[in-house]
Design brief:
By secondary structure, the protein is of the alpha+beta class. The protein has 3 helices and 11 strands. The strands form 2 sheets. The chain has a 6-stranded antiparallel sheet with strand order 5-10-6-7-8-9, with no helix packed on it. A 5-stranded antiparallel sheet has the order 3-4-2-1-11, with helices on one face. A hairpin with a 4-residue loop joins strand 1 and strand 2. Helix 1 runs antiparallel to helix 2.
Length: 190
């Protein structure tokens, strides 16, 4: 996850200080989430976004555990218990939200990220060169690409079928048709 965050912050041209602080905050939040006692089929979710034209980096980590984490004041000999203290020190603000389904929580932290630019450049490329993970512009909105496959038209030409993450209809395009893409949209990982 830290490598993913580092790569994304590099794309957004965030400073090294923001990148280092973001990595530490993400690491602490994920570590805490992994320590929550939950059934084995529950996952930890991570969401990373740059907001307000690069003014804020927001890191969210969701888990299925109950309760609200609190900053502790560990004693000198304690080997743990400093994670949220570090998050509170590095973050502009942080908090905890209940998850909409009522199971678990999302712990989030926002770091000041002056100069970061979360809007990736747009490119026009042939449909045949679209790859999973990119975002395509279709029906007036951006959609994340889940899968891409090719198939032959009855006439023998090559078609590209682009499956979107949002579950909407797939795009079926001529292989040479131009598509507007961005390298990435928001990062969501589980």
């Amino acid at each position: 996850m830290r490598a993913l965050l580092r790569a994304r912050l590099g794309e957004w041209r965030a400073s090294q200080a923001v990148s280092a602080d973001g990595e530490l905050v993400l690491s602490e939040l994920v570590t805490n989430a992994l320590r929550v006692p939950v059934p084995g089929d529950r996952m930890v979710g991570v969401h990373i976004a740059c907001r307000e034209k690069g003014a804020l980096l927001r890191v969210e980590v969701s888990d299925a555990g109950p309760g609200r984490p609190e900053v502790r004041q560990p004693r000198g000999t304690d080997t743990g218990g400093r994670g949220l203290m570090l998050v509170a020190a590095l973050a502009h603000r942080w908090g905890v939200d209940e998850r909409p389904a009522g199971i678990g929580k999302t712990v989030w932290a926002e770091l000041l990220a002056p100069g970061a630019d979360p809007v990736p450049p747009e490119l026009e490329i042939a449909a045949v060169t679209v790859r999973p993970g990119q975002c395509v512009r279709a029906w007036g909105a951006w959609h994340s690409v889940r899968a891409v496959r090719s198939e032959r038209y009855a006439s023998g030409g090559l078609a590209v079928v682009i499956t979107l993450d949002d579950g909407g209809p797939a795009l079926r395009l001529h292989a040479a048709e131009l598509v507007t893409v961005r390298t990435h949209g928001p990062v969501v990982a589980s």
